[in-house]
Write a structure and sequence with these properties.
Layout (H helix, E strand, L loop, with lengths): L8 E9 L10 E10 L2 E7 L5 H6 L3 E3 L4 E4 L1 E3 L11 H8 L4 H6 L4 H10 L2 H17 L2 E7 L6 H18 L2 E9 L10 H18 L5 E6 L6 H13 L5 E4 L7 H7 L4 E4 L5 H10 L2 E4 L1 H6 L8 H6 L4 E3 L13 H12 L3 H7 L2 H6 L17 E4 L5 H5 L6 E6 L2 E2 L11
Parallel strand pairs: 1-4, 1-5, 6-7, 7-8, 8-9, 9-10, 10-11, 11-12, 12-13
Antiparallel strand pairs: 1-2, 2-3, 5-14, 14-15, 15-16
Helix pairs in contact: 5-6, 6-7, 7-8, 9-10, 13-14
The structure holds 3-[(4S)-2,5-dioxoimidazolidin-4-yl]propanoic acid and fe (iii) ion.
Length: 420
């Protein structure tokens, strides 16, 4: 008994990749029906089991014509709000310049910080929105957005407010993350501990007071912040009741995975250099691994994340774009899936779970998002494909034909009305 009141919308004549576990691969239901009421999934199952009365009373019925429905895609790690780009730096690197030479010439992360501080809030919103058209075109309904290119009180707050403003403009659910401990701003050169004082004593409390962040992140790395400094940020976040996540062990093994687990982090991200003990600790703490093949690819890294250990200990593996101007100017979740398969040897099913079920968990929204099931948000992507493996297989193709958020069809091109 799934429904008594009439459905707002019902889709028939297609297939579902529910991404729930324990059933067929992809949680697939062929020749299925899915119905929504009040923004949530109210009926789901094989078409033959749909009571005729339910179909008759549905306010709208859509014929999928053989299309597939997956959960709306979720990008659980981005820095999509930032000003400018670093294409010139990319060009210089290909002409032989080193990272240090580029940094000395005023490039690198500090150039993005400079441009972000100078940009108006309207520019931050507009440029992010332009990039986010690609996520919408590929059926994404949830995106996480980090601060971390302001590195001062005013600009960190402006970045997070801009991220929140994008929810309405892009018709996507936005989860914001405060990443004040992303890099050391130039004016604090040689005084990293003093900068962490600013982050924990002033910026984070102001962020929390305005309720601007859903989580707190840090870049724990030789070129970022130490374990001790990261711990201070995490303690401050916990005192404010905010969950944490971590840029961990991307370029070296600082024990970031274990540190994240110690604080029951939602996720430990990158983790190329994490050791087995760290993976075990993540499994015990329920911390999700967020793997970022775009950064691995763009930086031409060679150290693979410990995929076998993650599988062995049953750590959920999410994947994400890490969209940022320095290490991953990647705007496609579909390409991220392909990269996870080709570079990290994910199966196509693991890749799709990585941007649905596990991505939801990395954001702490697994109760409402990430799978197609009764009571969950009616967030869907609709695809003109024969089998879900095509989503990871194709390189640069986009078979998305529809995007549904909370039961309503929403645009795939920002500013252009939904047609399907
Ligand atoms: N890890 C990275 O690779 C980037 N940030 C981070 O935490 C680099 C960001 C940039 O270069 O702008
Ligand atoms: Fe990142």
């Amino acid at each position: 008994m799934q429904t008594e009141k009439s459905l707002d919308r019902l889709w028939l004549g297609g297939h579902l990749a529910t991404m729930t576990t324990g059933a067929a691969p992809y949680g697939a239901i062929r020749d299925a029906a899915i119905g929504v009421r009040d923004g949530c999934i109210a009926w789901i199952g094989p078409r033959v089991q749909l009571p005729p009365a339910v179909e008759r009373h549905a306010k709208q019925v859509h014929d999928l014509q053989g299309a597939w429905i997956t959960p709306g895609l979720i990008d659980c790690h981005t820095h999509v709000v930032h000003a400018g780009h670093r294409a010139a730096e990319f060009e210089l690197r290909l002409l032989g310049a080193s990272y240090a030479q580029i940094a000395q010439a005023g490039g690198g992360i500090v150039s993005t910080v400079r441009q972000t501080r100078e940009a108006s809030s309207a520019t931050l919103i507009d440029t992010a929105l332009q990039r986010m058209t690609q996520w919408c075109a590929e059926g994404a309904t949830v995106i996480e957005i980090k601060s971390g290119y302001g590195l001062d009180l005013e600009t960190e707050l402006r970045m997070l407010r801009a991220a929140r403003a994008l929810e309405e403009r892009a018709q996507m659910t936005i989860k914001t993350t405060f990443l004040g401990a992303h890099a050391l701003p130039q004016e604090y050169a040689g005084r990293a501990d003093t900068y962490i004082d600013l982050v924990v004593d002033e910026v984070l409390p102001a962020v929390a007071k305005e309720d601007l962040a859903d989580a707190v992140d840090a870049f724990c790395e030789g070129i970022g912040f130490s374990v001790a400094q990261t711990r201070r940020v995490f303690q401050a976040a916990q005192a404010l009741g905010l969950p944490v996540k971590l840029h961990a062990d991307q370029l070296s093994d600082l024990g970031g995975a274990a540190l994240a687990a110690e604080f029951a982090a939602l996720s430990a991200d990158h983790i190329e250099y994490s050791n087995e003990a760290g993976v075990r600790a993540m499994a015990k703490a329920g911390t999700v691994a967020v793997l970022l093949p775009g950064a691995f690819y763009f930086l031409r890294e060679t150290q693979h994340p410990p995929i076998e250990a993650l599988r062995k200990y049953g750590v959920p593996m999410a994947i994400a774009t890490d969209n940022n101007p320095g290490s991953s100017p990647l705007v496609s979740l579909l390409l991220t899936m392909n990269m996870a398969c080709t570079l990290f040897r994910f199966t196509p099913e693991e890749a799709l779970a990585g941007i649905t079920r596990h991505a939801a968990r990395a954001l702490g929204i697994e109760h409402s998002h990430g799978t197609l099931a009764i009571g969950k948000a009616a967030d869907f992507a609709l695809w003109r494909i024969d089998t879900p493996a095509q989503l990871a297989y194709a390189i640069g193709a986009n078979p998305c034909v529809g995007r549904v958020r909370a039961g309503r069809s929403v645009p795939r091109m920002i500013g252009v009305p939904a047609t399907f």
